[in-house]
Amino acid sequence: MQYVTRLTTALTVAGALVLAMSTGAQAGAIGTTPVRTFEYSVGGMTMKIPTGCVFTHIIRGGGRKIRYQNAGVDCAFVGALSSGFCNWRIDFTYADTDNRTYRTSRGTTHNECKIDPMRNNSPQTLPRYGKACAHLYVGGTRRVSQCHNITK
Fold it and tell me: How many CA within 13 A on the CB side of residue 138?
């Protein structure tokens, strides 16, 4: 049943991606990036993240005002059968139009293993236009990022 739920979620996200390919955040944006296969070590044990996982970043708001922001991983198929992401965190970064990062909201590192890590960020008004990004770190290494342009 859990596999069917994850599959349904992944397919819903994929469908939303097809309908919302825009990267502008005038009224909101959603973007999904595949998580590439990788291996990492936890307590001397090798963990492998297979294909089938995507990292999704959602922003709702207008202009420089962000009312809602969320990022997380959804896995389906073989990815849903893995042991998950251990020692993970999700950071949100904000950069100006010259691609200079001026703010980072660093997430808490979670020591447990989770197949669907997720984080919300608080509403805020950005001081500059540019881009907002979400980054997934596993074992201290950035594994995937997803960004949206914040424009007038």
Answer: 27
Q: What is the pTM of this model?
A: 0.79
Q: How far apart are CA 54 and CA 32, in angstroms?
A: 6
Which residues neighbour 99 within 8 Å (Cβ) at sequence distance 6 or greater?
130, 131
Per-residue pLDDT 10s for the chain (152 aa) are 444 344 444 444 444 443 344 444 446 899 999 999 888 888 888 888 877 899 999 999 999 999 999 999 998 866 556 678 999 999 999 999 999 999 999 999 999 889 899 999 999 999 999 999 999 999 999 999 999 999 88
Coil, helix or strand at residue 117: coil
Residue 101, number of CB atoms within 10 A of its CB: 12
Segments forming the whole domain that contains residue 37: 2-150
CATH number for the domain harbouring residue 62: 2.60.40
Q: How many domains does the chain have?
A: 1
| Residue 96: closest CA among 127, 65, 125 | 127
